[in-house]
Amino acid sequence: IKYMAAKCIIAVVKDNDYKIAQYSRYNATPLGQGLNILNFLNRNKYSMITFSIKINDLEWITDDDLISYSEEFGLYKEKANTIKVQQKIYKKYPQLDADSNKSILELVFLKEIRKVKNSIDFANDSLHCEWLYLINFDDWTFEIYKGFNKKKLTPNDRFYNDTEDKEYYPVKKIKSYSLYNLPTIEKFTERFSKYE
User: I want to staple 55 with a disulfide (CB 3.0 to 4.6 A). Which of 19, 24, 31, 174 is the partner?
Assistant: First the structure.
């Protein structure tokens, strides 16, 4: 699947609390990240309870953490090669790289990282947040939300906020699948190919 310039969030919620909310620019469309997440869920369908427990140990990356990561690799040193330093940072901390093809879900599942970025507020900007993929461990569902939303949300919508009239509102859910009854790749592709 070719690289697409769309932007998305990959999120996981449990006990009404976001545990993962990763901003990504890599292959963000349903037939890109959407299929990647579906494949992850199908590969690990017998380990979802384990995964839901692992996310309890995650922490959000703080501003102090970001400063520490940058100082660790000398980003602020005079004449530092910014691009090379960033590449080193991203290699050690792949969860910081929005263009990475590494799956944030796999990194957490394999316990390769314990801190993640919180980008959930990006969901409120559906002009730029074109997709959001949510693994919902409260309802045990895989949910797909679409951006470019020009209609006000209702209090029943996940990202509802009572704001003034504006051109674009938060992302809106367009499809939900039970984690116990996920679609085949073919069915998922058929459902979302029109958005490519």
Answer: 19
- Please tell me the distance from the alpha carbon of residue 38 to that of residue 144, in angstroms, as a whole number: 11
| pLDDT, tens only, 8-48 | 999 999 999 999 999 998 889 999 999 999 999 999 999 99
The backbone torsions φ and ψ at residue 118, rounded to the nearest 5 degrees and listed phi first, read -105, 105
Main-chain dihedrals φ then ψ at residue 46, nearest 5 degrees: -90, 5
Radius of gyration of the chain (CA): 17
Q: Return d(Cα 194, Cα 63) in angstroms, integer.
A: 39
Q: Rounded to two decimals, what is the model's pTM?
A: 0.91
Tokens (6 digits) for 178 = 């039970």
Task: Using alpha carbons, list the distances in angstroms from residue 50 to 45, 70, 115.
Answer: 10, 33, 18
